[in-house]
Structures are given as structure tokens and as C-alpha cells.
């Protein structure tokens, strides 16, 4: 079966001469796969996701190829990207309240995603209500008209998931979707994403810094560092036999896994995020600062 | 083991809304009692809104509780005045989550660390700069960074500065509120190691507030679990993690993602 997402030799730079935020990444995701992309701040995992969705700022230079369902994304026009987003690939972010318009009812925001892909107003509302039920919102008919601030953080993330999945995309990219949530709510939201993936055959790319989350839900894992994909393995193998020294250090640095009171193994200086940040500062033009527009 | 801090029956209610008939009340602390022994670490866990930060802030004297008692080294911390209050503040120091927020962005880090020495008149003025350098070395920072502004440091380095500033007054108790939550895994491990070293070398007691059970079980001798403002369980770390008595603690432990 053909790959849902296929990335070949992708390089992303923010400005000419800047360090590559994504540095020659190649990756293929199969249909219905739950893929985890892990790494620390600044490793390029979110930039990679934004490149797939065509969300990079105009000054970013992109080379290589990103194909979603066989169609090249790099170089698409804004209109073509808009028709691709939602219908073929959708993305959810860490902060659900930033994704939602505070002055709109949550139901209308799900319906908007449907109407953007040419569904009539009445049908859109009916489907939005069905989606709210599907993502586990009790009494959707009453909740439909609530503004986002009436809902809890976990509920808001459910609304965002409903809007993302409204048009049955084949690929869902979730960028730290549970980082802002409490652990008990985090577990519920991850279960929901996994349930929807199984029911709809959606391919999920979960971007996270949390190795525990990845080991629990993902089939396959990619580890990123300094813009490069260091290691790509089945989740079971990655945790049992990490090959790359950075992956090994990252797993060992987890305090939950270490005996109490023992010194935690520290990631060697040349692999530490701090040395990466220091290098950025020395080179002057920081790729990461440019991204925050 | 002698007791350093004892909190008894602490109550705190927050009110919101300007109009009396539209006012909401939130019970942030509901009859909370904990104790911390000298040189030991009590981990305080709970989800957002459980009241764990309010408890830390009450102990620091940043929030005044409605009812209850805070005994520090036998003295009632809520009734301290004058020199005794200054001395209490010297002996109990905070470390916060966000090192961006707790350091003055316009001050070189050396000045931020020195402030507490000046404030509590520790050492002679001439001696203080040397102490600042010692403190930086103590938390694993290069002395050359003393003139840097916080903006030119990484997140982990900034948190080290925050810890150095807290240690400057030679406290006996550190209230650390989510000190590693904003840090990456590789940096988090370094800061946790630093905390454990300081406890061993200096014998500082700490109240370690976090939402992360993995962190808590690693650094604390005892754990307290809070929910909706109330203490649901307190006990030795091994006991609480292996045989949680309360259903909420069990749910919390079960929800932590673990390697398969």
C-alpha cells in the first residue's frame, strides 16, 4: 500500500545562511499507523510538522519533497493548500484555547471546518453534533452553543480534535496535544485519538517530548535532534534496544525509570539541548527566534 | 528526626467576582496538615487547581491563610514580626517554575544572586561578590556568566541562577514550585541531580511541588497528594507509590504513561 505521508530529504531553513531547522529528513508513514516523533525543544519536530501542513512562514526556504497521499505539498499555492488542509491532512496543537475563537460557539467552529469544504449549513450542523458525540462530549445539543471558555481544557481539546477530523483526513498531526493537560485528562485524550484512529483508519503523527506517552500509544517512533532524524524504530524495539547514544541517554534521563535518589544519567554535553542553544546564540541568527512571528 | 515545618489545619478560600450576589468562592485549601523534617524532602503532587501552589505560597508568606497554623522551627510563622520575620524569610526560600519570570531581565545574574546577600546583610559588602561566585560554582555555572543578562542564558542555566539566588541566604527550607516542569528532559535530569546534591551536601529541607509523579518519586522521601484543596494521602514515597491507599492516588499513578 502506498504511503500516506512520504518525506524525502527535507531541508528547512529560516533565512538564507541560517542553520537548518530540519536537516535532510526522510520518512514514510503507512496507512492507519500511530507514529511518534520525539525530541527536545528546538530539535525541529514542530518545523517538520509545519512543513507537511504548508504552515511555514514565507521566508522559510524548503527543499526536498513532502507528499501527502502521493501529492507534492512543497510549492503548492495557498488555495491548493487550503483545500488539502482538513480534507487530507489536519493538525491539532498544544493549546486548544488558542486554536479556538473565543467569541464563537464551539459547535459552529466544528461546522466551519465542514463548510470550508463545501457542506451546506444544515448538514454541517448535524454532522458537527454527531462529531461532538463521537469525541465524547455529553449533551452536545446544549454544548453546541457554548463559547470555548465554558469548557474545560480537556473538553476544548476534544472540540479541536472533532474539528480536525470533521472532513475525514487521512493524516492527523498532533503537536504536543496533551502537554498542557493533567495526567488523568491526558490519558483520556490519548485514548480518544487512538480510538478514532482505529475506527477511521487515520494515520496519526504524534509530536511530543514525552517518551512515556510515546511508548504507551505509538507503533513506530522517530527521534529527532538538531534537525536530523537520528533513529527510527518500532516503539517496542526503541525502548528495549535504543541504538543511538542520544536516544539511550534520553530514555535514561527519565526520573520515573531510575531508582529513587540515584543520580540521573546526564545527557553528554555535546548532545545536550543547552549546547545546541549555545551554538545557536553564537551563530547570531537564531532559527527558533525567527519562527515566533 | 527533628521537625522543621509543621502546617496544621490550613484553610484558604478565594473569592472572585465584584458583585456580592455574583461572587464565586473556591476552597483552595481545606484543612491541610503536613510536616517536613530537617534535611528531608516532601513531594507535593496534585493536578492543576488542587491547591498545591497555594499551600507553598502560604508557607512562604505570600498568601495569608484564613485559618490554621504554620509552625517553623517551633515558632508560629503567621505571627512573626520585625527581626523574627526577616529571619524567617532568610531561612525559607522559594524556587519557582519559570526562571524567566523570577529574574529581573535588566539585571546581570550576579546582581540577582547578590540581592539576597545585601538584603539579609550576609557577609561584608566586599565579601559578597566572592560569595556570589562561590554560589554560581555551587550550582554548576561558569563564573564568567556572572555579568550576563538572563536573556543570554538557556532555560537550564536560568533555573540554576534561580537556585543560586535561593541558596544565597543559606536557607533551611526551600519551597520549590514546579522547578523542572519547563525544562527539557536532558536539562531536567541535571537540575534534579543538583537538587539531590544540595540536599546531601547542605542538608537543606525542601517542599517539592510538582504535577509529575515520576519526578516526585525520584527526589522525595515522603509524598503528599492533594485534590480539590484537600490532602488525600501522605506517607513514605515507597509506600505511596507501591500501595496507594486512596482511590485518587491510584488513579493518578495509573494515568502516568510508562514504558511497556
Q: In a nutshell, what does this entry contain?
A:
With 293 residues, chain A is an alpha/beta fold. Helix content of chain A is 39%, strand content 22%.
Structure in words:
- The complex is a heterodimer of chains A (293) and B (260).
- With 293 residues, chain A is an alpha/beta fold.
- Chain A has one domain (5-285): 3-Layer(aba) Sandwich (Rossmann fold), CATH 3.40.50.
- Chain A is built from 13 helices and 10 strands.
- Chain A has helices spanning 45-53, 78-84, 96-99, 106-115, 121-134, 140-143, 153-165, 183-200, 211-217, 235-240, 245-252, 273-282, 287-291; strands spanning 5-14, 20-29, 34-38, 60-68, 71-72, 89-92, 171-175, 203-208, 220-225, 228-234.
- A 6-stranded mixed beta sheet of chain A has the order 6-7-8-3-9-10, sandwiched between helices.
- Chain A is globular and about 60 Å long.
- Chain B is an alpha/beta fold and 260 residues long.
- Chain B has one domain (3-106, 174-255): Rossmann fold (3-Layer(aba) Sandwich), CATH 3.40.50.300.
- In chain B, strands 6-7-8-3-9-10 form a 6-stranded mixed beta sheet, sandwiched between helices.
- In chain B, strand 1 and strand 2 form a beta hairpin.
- In chain B, helix 6 packs parallel to helix 7 (185-202).
- The longest helix of chain B is centred in the last third of the chain and has 18 residues, at 185-202.
- Chain B is globular and about 55 Å long.
- Chain B starts with a strand and ends in a 5-residue tail after the last helix.
- The model of chain B has no long low-confidence stretch (mean pLDDT 90).
- Chains A and B meet through helix 8, helix 9, helix 10, helix 11 and helix 12 of A and helix 6, helix 7, helix 8 and helix 10 of B.
Amino acid at each position: 500500500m502506498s504511503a500516506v505521508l512520504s518525506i524525502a530529504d527535507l531541508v528547512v531553513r529560516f533565512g538564507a545562511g541560517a542553520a537548518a531547522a530540519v536537516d535532510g529528513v526522510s520518512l514514510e508513514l503507512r496507512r492507519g499507523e500511530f507514529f511518534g516523533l520525539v525530541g527536545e525543544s528546538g530539535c525541529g519536530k514542530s518545523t517538520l510538522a509545519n512543513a507537511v501542513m504548508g504552515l511555514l512562514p514565507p521566508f522559510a526556504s524548503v527543499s526536498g519533497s513532502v507528499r501527502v497521499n502521493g501529492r507534492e505539498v512543497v510549492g503548492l499555492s495557498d488555495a491548493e493548500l487550503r483545500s488539502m488542509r482538513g480534507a487530507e491532512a489536519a493538525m491539532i496543537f498544544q493549546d486548544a484555547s488558542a486554536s479556538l475563537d473565543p467569541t464563537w460557539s464551539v459547535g459552529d467552529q466544528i461546522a466551519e471546518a465542514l463548510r470550508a469544504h463545501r457542506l451546506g449549513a444544515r448538514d454541517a450542523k448535524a454532522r458537527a453534533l454527531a462529531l461532538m458525540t463521537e469525541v465524547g462530549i455529553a449533551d452536545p445539543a446544549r454544548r453546541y452553543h457554548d463559547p470555548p471558555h465554558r469548557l474545560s481544557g480537556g473538553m476544548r481539546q476534544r472540540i479541536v480534535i472533532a474539528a480536525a477530523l470533521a472532513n475525514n483526513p487521512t493524516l492527523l498531526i498532533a503537536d504536543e496535544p496533551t502537554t498542557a493537560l493533567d495526567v488523568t485528562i491526558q490519558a483520556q485524550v490519548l485514548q480518544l485519538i487512538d480510538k478514532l484512529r482505529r475506527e477511521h483508519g487515520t494515520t496519526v503523527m504524534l509530536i511530543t517530548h514525552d517518551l512515556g506517552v510515546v511508548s504507551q500509544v505509538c507503533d513506530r517512533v522517530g527521534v529527532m535532534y538538531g534537525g536530523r532524524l537520528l533513529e527510527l524504530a518500532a516503539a517496542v524495539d526503541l525502548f528495549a534496544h535504543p541504538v543511538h547514544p542520544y536516544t539511550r541517554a534520553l530514555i535514561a534521563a527519565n526520573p520515573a525509570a531510575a531508582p529513587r535518589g540515584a543520580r540521573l544519567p546526564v545527557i553528554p554535553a555535546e548532545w545536550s539541548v543547552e549546547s545546541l542553544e549555545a551554538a545557536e546564540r553564537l551563530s547570531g541568527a537564531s532559527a527558533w527566534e525567527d519562527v515566533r512571528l | 528526626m527533628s521537625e522543621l515545618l509543621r502546617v496544621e489545619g490550613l484553610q484558604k478560600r478565594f473569592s472572585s467576582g465584584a458583585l456580592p450576589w455574583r461572587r464565586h468562592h473556591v476552597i483552595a485549601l481545606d484543612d491541610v496538615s503536613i510536616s517536613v523534617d530537617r534535611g528531608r524532602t516532601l513531594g507535593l503532587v496534585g493536578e492543576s487547581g488542587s491547591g498545591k501552589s497555594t499551600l507553598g505560597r502560604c508557607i512562604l508568606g505570600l498568601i495569608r491563610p484564613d485559618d490554621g497554623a504554620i509552625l517553623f522551627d517551633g515558632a508560629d510563622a503567621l505571627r512573626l514580626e520585625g527581626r523574627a520575620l526577616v529571619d524567617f524569610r532568610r531561612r525559607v526560600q522559594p524556587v519557582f517554575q519559570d526562571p524567566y519570570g523570577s529574574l529581573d531581565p535588566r539585571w546581570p545574574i550576579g546582581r540577582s544572586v547578590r540581592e539576597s546577600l545585601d538584603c539579609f546583610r550576609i557577609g561584608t559588602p566586599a565579601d559578597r561578590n566572592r560569595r556570589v561566585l562561590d554560589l554560581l560554582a555551587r550550582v554548576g555555572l561558569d563564573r564568567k556568566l556572572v555579568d550576563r543578562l538572563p536573556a543570554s542564558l538557556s532555560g537550564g542555566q536560568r533555573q540554576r541562577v534561580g537556585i543560586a539566588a535561593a541558596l544565597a541566604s543559606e536557607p533551611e527550607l526551600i519551597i520549590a514550585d514546579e522547578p523542572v516542569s519547563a525544562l527539557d528532559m536532558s536539562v531536567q535530569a541535571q537540575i534534579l541531580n543538583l537538587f539531590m546534591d544540595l540536599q546531601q551536601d547542605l542538608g537543606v529541607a525542601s517542599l517539592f511541588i510538582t504535577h509529575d509523579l515520576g519526578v516526585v518519586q525520584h527526589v522525595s522521601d515522603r509524598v503528599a497528594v492533594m485534590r480539590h484543596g484537600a490532602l488525600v494521602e501522605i506517607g513514605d514515597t515507597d509506600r505511596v507509590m507501591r500501595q496507594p491507599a486512596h482511590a485518587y492516588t491510584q488513579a493518578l499513578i495509573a494515568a502516568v504513561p510508562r514504558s511497556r
